[in-house]
């Protein structure tokens, strides 16, 4: 027969506090003591009454242990790292100026519109005599900027709406979620196309803003769900019972514990943003200045020669596919590593 804890007993009160602390998330354990580097020291008592401490493993350390043994994550990380390095150092890695038609004298509209590959030009040139290899390298920077900036702005917008809906609830939650539902009911690419088409003049910022607006409801809905789960947790209820201010509960207890799934989703959204940006540029809604190459823009310019010179479209399309695949593999691996169910 189990013994009912006495609320006047100090030991039972300590057990209650420990059980509340255990619900604060995987980063905190009942009776644990924080250690530098995010680990914890777990206190145990043997039969003789001696207290022994053993170093535990934090959530991030456990996730990294799983990730570094996951070949899918390592492949995605390698692709993403190479892409970022190439994008950062693109002006120094490109063998030629991507805006100069170095082979323009060899372009013949009827007989030789696309110069073939040769020493110094491993992928040949486009119809303006510009080196395709250099344009792919420099175009990676534009692709990275659009993907990261669109994801960042969408993340900030979704963070604001999701926090308001999840923390305040009531009519605020209903209003925000109705707006989110309407936006999610429209196909993302169609919504981005409609927003970009409103702009008086196409530009890179037009693409960034259009994609960011499309991503806002994704982050808002995900964060709102995580915030609602935190509202019902015992440690938040205990903080309310102790009279802690709502702002302190939201920003110190609820929001930090709800950010995990949102950060993982941001990795996946980068891949979606890159694909959407390429689609908008392909449709002519991106930067109209072809002296600043971008993969979607290059893909759109190659459609005139797709039957006779398919390689002109294959190279930028392949770059888009590989980079999007890298971010997707990394994001899915992060999701699995941080999933509490898969860590059991």
From TrEMBL:
Predominant location: membrane
Transmembrane stretches, start-end: 72-94, 144-172, 179-199, 205-223, 262-285, 313-334
Its membrane topology: Multi-pass membrane protein
Subcellular location: Cell membrane
UniProt keyword Transport, yes or no: yes
A family per Pfam: OppC_N
Protein name: ABC transporter permease
GO biological process, any: transmembrane transport
Domain ABC transmembrane type-1: 140-331
GO CC terms of this entry: plasma membrane
UniProt record similarity statement: Belongs to the binding-protein-dependent transport system permease family.
Record keywords: Cell membrane, Membrane, Transmembrane, Transmembrane helix, Transport
């Amino acid at each position: 027969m189990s013994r009912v804890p006495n609320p006047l007993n100090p030991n039972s009160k300590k057990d209650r506090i420990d059980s509340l602390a255990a619900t604060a998330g995987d980063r905190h354990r009942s009776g644990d003591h924080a250690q530098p580097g995010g680990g914890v020291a777990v206190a145990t008592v043997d039969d003789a009454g001696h207290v022994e401490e053993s170093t535990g493993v934090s959530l991030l350390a456990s996730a990294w242990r799983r990730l570094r043994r996951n070949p899918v994550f390592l492949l995605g990380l390698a692709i993403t790292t190479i892409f970022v390095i190439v994008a950062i150092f693109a002006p120094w890695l490109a063998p030629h100026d991507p805006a100069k038609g170095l082979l323009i004298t060899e372009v013949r509209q009827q007989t030789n519109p696309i110069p073939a590959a040769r020493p110094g030009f491993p992928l040949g040139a486009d119809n303006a005599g510009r080196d395709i290899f250099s344009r792919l390298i420099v175009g990676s920077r534009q692709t990275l900027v659009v993907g990261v900036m669109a994801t960042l702005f969408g993340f900030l917008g979704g963070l604001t709406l999701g926090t308001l809906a999840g923390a305040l609830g009531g009519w605020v939650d209903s209003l925000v979620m109705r707006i989110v539902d309407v936006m999610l009911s429209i196909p993302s690419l169609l919504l981005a196309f409609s927003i970009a088409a409103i702009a008086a003049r196409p530009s890179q910022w037009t693409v960034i803003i259009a994609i960011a607006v499309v991503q806002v409801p994704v982050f808002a809905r995900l964060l709102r769900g995580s915030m609602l789960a935190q509202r019902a947790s015992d440690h938040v209820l205990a903080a309310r019972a102790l009279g802690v201010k709502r702002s302190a509960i939201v920003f110190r207890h609820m929001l930090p514990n709800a950010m995990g799934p949102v950060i993982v989703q941001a990795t996946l959204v980068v891949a979606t943003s890159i694909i959407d940006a390429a689609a908008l540029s392909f449709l002519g809604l991106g930067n109209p200045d072809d002296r600043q190459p971008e993969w979607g823009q290059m893909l759109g310019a190659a459609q005139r020669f797709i039957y006779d010179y398919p390689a002109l479209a294959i190279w930028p399309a392949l770059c888009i596919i590989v980079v999007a695949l890298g971010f997707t593999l990394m994001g899915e691996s992060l999701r699995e590593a941080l999933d509490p169910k898969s860590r059991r």
